[in-house]
């Protein structure tokens, strides 16, 4: 109870906190606001990244189904598509036992399972990053990488290797034979690198 003969001094209140109490009261909403912004950013990242990953996964699996079951490329081995001077684009069947573009290939009995597990772990980490994506290009790029990685994981579990079939070459030099999942991974990584190198920091940062 306040003594009428001794009115409270400026800065004092019933909480008895004075200046310290006031600063605590004004600082309290800041963590909550920052956390809310982070949650909203994560929702937006997943809303774009997950559909992108799902779309690329479906397209990748459909393209491999067409190559294996309709075009029967494992039997035909080679189908010419386009030719423009020294540049050519063909379908050539290659079973890739490594990672993207044939890296880390091997014929061990557990090799495809180890690589599939590694890719699945990386995809899970990228999903966590996607949930914190700050921009739409980053969320979309992460979705492309995740969709491509999961597509190749499915191949390893089904066939023990990844079905590659796009063969681009010029002047007698052939690029690594790849598939749609590989292209999605490479394009996604390229966008992430460009974002890291060239994205301007937000104003006031």
Question: What attributes characterize this protein structure?
Answer:
alpha+beta, 205 residues
Provide the gyration radius in Å: 27 Å
Strand order of the largest sheet: 1-2-3-4
What distance lies between the first and last C-alpha atoms, to the nearest angstrom? Answer: 47 Å
The amount of helix comes to: 55-70%
Largest sheet: 4 strands, antiparallel
DSSP strand (E) fraction?
5-15%
Mean pLDDT: 80
- Low-pLDDT segments, ≥5 res: 11-25
What's the total helix number? Answer: 6
- Count of individual beta strands: 4
Overall geometry comes to globular
Counting helices, strands and paired strands, the structural category is alpha+beta
Task: Give the H and E element order.
Answer: HHHEEHHEEH
Task: Give a description of the structure.
The chain has 205 residues and is an alpha+beta fold. The chain is 59% helix and 14% strand. The protein is built from six helices and four strands; from the N terminus they run H-H-H-E-E-H-H-E-E-H. The protein has helices at 18-27, 29-70, 73-76, 111-131, 136-159, 180-198, and strands spanning 78-84, 87-96, 162-170, 173-174. Strands 1-2-3-4 form a four-stranded antiparallel beta sheet. The longest helix is centred in the first third of the chain and has 42 residues, at 29-70. The radius of gyration is 27 Å and the shape is globular. The relative contact order is 0.14. The model is unreliable at 11-25 (pLDDT under 50).
């Amino acid at each position: 109870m306040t003594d009428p003969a001794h009115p409270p001094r400026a800065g004092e209140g019933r909480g008895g906190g004075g200046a310290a109490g006031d600063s605590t009261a004004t600082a309290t909403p800041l963590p909550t606001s920052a956390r809310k912004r982070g949650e909203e950013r994560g929702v937006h990242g997943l809303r774009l990244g997950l559909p992108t990953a799902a779309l690329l996964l479906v397209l990748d699996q459909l393209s491999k189904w067409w190559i294996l079951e309709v075009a029967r490329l494992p039997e035909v081995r080679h189908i010419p598509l386009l030719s423009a001077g020294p540049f050519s684009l063909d379908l050539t069947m290659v079973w890739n036992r490594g990672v993207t573009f044939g890296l880390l290939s091997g014929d061990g009995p557990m090799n495809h399972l180890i690589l599939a597990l590694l890719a699945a772990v990386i995809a899970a980490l990228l999903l966590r990053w996607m949930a914190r994506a700050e921009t739409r290009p980053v969320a979309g790029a992460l979705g492309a990488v995740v969709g491509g990685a999961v597509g190749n994981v499915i191949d390893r579990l089904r066939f023990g290797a990844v079905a590659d079939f796009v063969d681009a070459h010029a002047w007698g030099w052939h690029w690594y034979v790849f598939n749609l999942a590989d292209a999605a991974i490479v394009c996604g990584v390229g966008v992430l690198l460009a974002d890291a190198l060239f994205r301007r920091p937000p104003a006031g940062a």
